[in-house]
Amino acid sequence: MRHMTAAALTAALMSTSALAQDADTTEDSQDTMSETTEAAAADPFLWLEEVEGERALTQVREWNSGTLDTLKADPLYEELYNEALAIVNSEDKIAYPSQRGDHVYNFWQDETHVKGIWRRATLESYMSGAPEWDILLDVDALAEEEGDSWVYKGSSCAEPANRRCIITLSPGGSDAAVRREFDVETKSFVEDGYALPVAKGFTSWISEDELLVATDWGEGTMTESGYPFVVKTWRRGTPLEDAEEVIRGDQTDVGVWPFAIHTEARTYVAFSEADTFYETKWWMLDAEGEKVQLPLPAKSSITDIHEGQLLVALQEDWAPESGGAFTSGQLVSFDIDQYLETGQLGGVQAVYTPDDRSAFQSASATAAGVIVSITENVQGQAWLYTLDDAGQWQSTRIPLAENSVVSLADADRESALAFFSVENMLTPDTLYAVDLTTLEPSVAAQLPEWFDSATMEVEQMEAASKDGTSVPYFVMKPKGVELDGTNPTLLYGYGGFQVTMDPSYSALRGKLWVENGGTFVLANIRGGGEFGPAWHQAGLKTNRQVIYDDFIAVGEDLIERGVTAPEHLGIMGGSNGGLLMGVMYTQRPDLWGAVVCQVPLLDMLRYHKLLAGASWVGEYGSPEIPEEREFLQSISPYHNVEADADYPPIFFVTSTKDDRVHPGHARKMAARLAEEGHAFDYYENIEGGHSAAANLIETANRVALEYTWLWDRLNGDDA
Hints:
α15 (664-675) links the parallel β36 and β37. The protein is of the alpha+beta class. Helix content is 23%, strand content 31%. α5 packs antiparallel against α9 (507-514) and α5 (75-89) packs antiparallel against α16. It folds into 5 domains: 55-86 and 451-714, Rossmann fold; 96-199; 201-293; 306-353, no CATH class; 356-448. The protein is globular. The strands form 8 sheets. The chain has an 8-stranded mixed sheet. Strands 5, 6, 7, 8 and 9 form a 5-stranded antiparallel sheet that branches. The protein has 16 helices and 37 strands.
């Protein structure tokens, strides 16, 4: 099975490792140019929102030059850069598999293949431990041949043959992408095959000769958030303009996404119409090809189908008309064929029910049952669920390591073989192959140790937030370090979009920070998905201050325990975590010694007008609603800079090509600080997209810049 539900797509819209395909950054510059004179007077830095504007880029280059000249002249930069480059370019990495039929597919980047190669091996060869890879597409060669800075964004293949695939390529790393049909047997793009121009969008195969397409169809087909709301079927051999409309949402939606679930019995064609970031209408086509709305609560996610049972994750309580009562956080199922045929919902049953310290993470159907991944107190577990003769769900835990991050790396509907990634902060990722018929795991691959973990220790602690909520966090530090308040400490947080911060292994963090004597802290604050929907929903909209209170509580707890002191305590976060950094900078400048603010949101009164910002109103609230605007203004970093405040050093890191979170946020905040006489450092990668890095060399550069900057400010008695 190779499909992506809209739940996964919607989450990807904000993730820094996004899979969603978004739009051209130039759209917003047109919006910017239409600003009223009054708006321009109220915000003198609107010109910095013109992404490719000559004046804006001149300012960016000036800021870049000052920062890069200073940091790259520091001897520490070269040392950290070389260490980072050795890690990211190393061939001692796991080639994570993607099963398709009797082959395993993999995308690989290293020193030779900076942009990467898409390749495959037979499953037998892969399982031997020495795969014989067949290179299908060399992205470096393609970029050179076509003169475009292509960044590979993924592939999807037509089942069951898996010969024809849609390859997604992004110019410069932006979310906007082209999509082209590729033949894996001939290792070439298909002449006169499926091809879509650069746009926001998504595709899903119905069959090898029919494709579901959501894209920019022209004027009036994109939502206010910048995503498509019209989906069509495109039959092979016909022009794109003859594609037939299947579903049309509303311009006020976040977007409409198609997906197909291929089972042995039939292909289910489905659509998610996201009214908001967290409220969705779910549709399927019945046997006659008519669309049917499913009787699901607005806050729910379709995860898969197994033996005719539609699996649904609930993000709110549900009392279906057929009876029963189900609670937010549960995974439930019902007979989807019965509903599509009769319009009547049969019995709904619970598959998985969490407690107050556990949470559902994912479900994936296989030939042997459904793999359900959960977390218990932010530690991973995997379970296999099967239906007994009475049609009831039974579960067995898959025996993988305790006290670790356990993630499903790959599973296929037609296979009883699954791959799991198991790691923790001190133990590098081990890839296990699990025969689901016996539940016996075997090591398929393992990362080398990039730092001396024997000299380090990890402890899970808890801090009491302002309202008394217990907030867990992980501390990774050198063994025997004295709790005397002098330890250079980096606290990382995110706190939004139900994204869980896992205590995973990071070679870069361990090598460049902890091995050099630093302490790293990961905060599991509200807004995330660590303890299910309630943990996330506690911080939505005007309740968002609890997220910031949680992060402050962790910082204060570290100081109270003697782990560090404000002058040695740095913080880092990206995207929504960049907003967190901005709020911490303006609300509690006394608590931090340094702030790394990556690809951030910072102007919370205009975020909904910039690129994909309108899609996040469900998370942050709307500046167009007076009560929500008042709260947003109270936390908006851009609107809370004070001339006489004593702010800590701050380093903004963003990307010109980021067409999800507008680089204007970081640009305008920097300009506001300059206007008020406050120092800052600034680096904007001209390429890179929302991850702020378009290739491995740039990743090494960015990480080295950040850690050099942090060491310079947090180390020493007078940091």
